[in-house]
User: Fold this.
Amino acid sequence: MASKHPIYPGPRTARGAVLAVLLSNADQAGSEPLRGRVTLAAIVRALKRKYNWPIETTSFPSNDIDGRATWATVYSLPQGVIDTALAGKGSDWLRSTSSSS
Assistant:
């Protein structure tokens, strides 16, 4: 089965905000683009299934702020996918996510 090419969501959407963080290979500092909308896990699932982005998921045990045991999850794109995307139209798309309104 042939691999489908990734699709870019709207740059001003929650999906676009999450993909921009993944493509920039930056850490997400909080959940500002997601507040009151939908969970990060749901957005990542849509980016994987609907938009064909090969997002990798790594979960590990952690401690919550109150000391309870919990799981932390990190989402990332393979560096080769980032390089390919940015060599194509990804650079222009990424710039459009941070353009002034």
Observations:
- The first helix runs from residue 14 to 24.
- The mean pLDDT is 85.
